[in-house]
């Protein structure tokens, strides 16, 4: 369900169900801006009349209203945009929600009407801090009685364009968009596995971006750009490629145990950033949240969600395995 480099159905559904739309041809012969323009017009989760589904549309279409009572869903950064709309839609499923937020005051204001349900817990978490992630995971496990059915890794940043390191010493885009979610998954993994049942498999859904087509995985010795070469848009794309790779590895390692991984690109969401002539098919946050919810709860073999091609490095078992092992070291979990 990612932006532009679709996979064939067989490979995508076996290893992360990463499905997409359009593959630009002769990618090496076009400029970076042209590549971004090409991938920015792809949209997903449309109805038969061409209109975009909203997250609420999907919940209603699949008959999920009140269907997830007793299930526990963790959603990172539900304060604004896609995360906020996903939280609103998931609330009507009857599930218990743990919503993380970096700024509690803002979250409390924006989530008015959601927090009052009695089934929602707001958890402080800064994705730019691994210690904050650890504290949040401990809170979630304690308050959920070690039960987690679905993890939605939604939080992410793309506005910091200067090379910046976190307090943990990692490049901030990779740390926020990838490492924090990788660590959160590892800490919640025992609960996700234990909560899975034959009737309801556990899932991890990671939000990615079609920009991933412009990069390949960095070398293990250059995640912090020790060798130079930092370019903002490429590092953002690199962090989103990492989300896809981790979804594949989750599926590969744990799919047979009832824990599945998916990655989804929400499309181009309406904002000041998208005020360009070539953005002619952008979506509202509620529409963008549809792919997030589909990835989190859509059943295996969603035949109406498919693409027309893929970029070869989108599916790369060797790189995916290397990233997994490297990430374990980076977050301080050398062995599982």
Automatic annotation (TrEMBL):
It comes from the Eukaryota. Residues 1-21 are annotated as: Disordered. Pfam families: adh_short. Belongs to the short-chain dehydrogenases/reductases (SDR) family. PANTHER family: NAD(P)-BINDING ROSSMANN-FOLD SUPERFAMILY PROTEIN, RETINOL DEHYDROGENASE. It comes from Corynespora cassiicola Philippines. The keyword Transmembrane helix does not apply. Keywords: Oxidoreductase. GO terms for molecular function: oxidoreductase activity. This is NAD(P)-binding protein. SUPFAM superfamilies: NAD(P)-binding Rossmann-fold domains.
